[in-house]
Amino acid sequence: MPLVSRSLLFPVLTLALTVVWPAALPAQSVKTPADWDLKISQVPKGLPVKGEAWLPDDDNYAWQAARYIEGYLALARVTGDRKYMNDSREILDYMLTNRDDIRFADKPLDAIYHYAPTTYMFHRGTPAKGWRRGSGPAPAKGVSVLIDGRICEMFIQWCELARQGFPGVYEADVKRYLDRVQETIEMHLPSFFDVIKVDPVKVTYRATRPAGGFRHWWHVNELTLPASEAPRTYSGQIPLNHSMTMARAMLGYGRLRGTDVYRDKVQLVVNFFLNSIDPAVKDRALWEYDPARKDRFDIEDVGHAAIDLSLVEAAYRAGGYGIDDALVKRLVKTFHGFYYEPTHDVYFNISGPKKPGDLPRKNYGERTAIGFASWLWLAEFDPTIAVKVRATYETYFTGGPSGFTMGGWGNLLYAESVLAGKAAIVLPKTPAIKPGGR
Question: Does the entry feature the keyword Signal, yes or no (predicted)?
Answer without folding.
Answer: yes
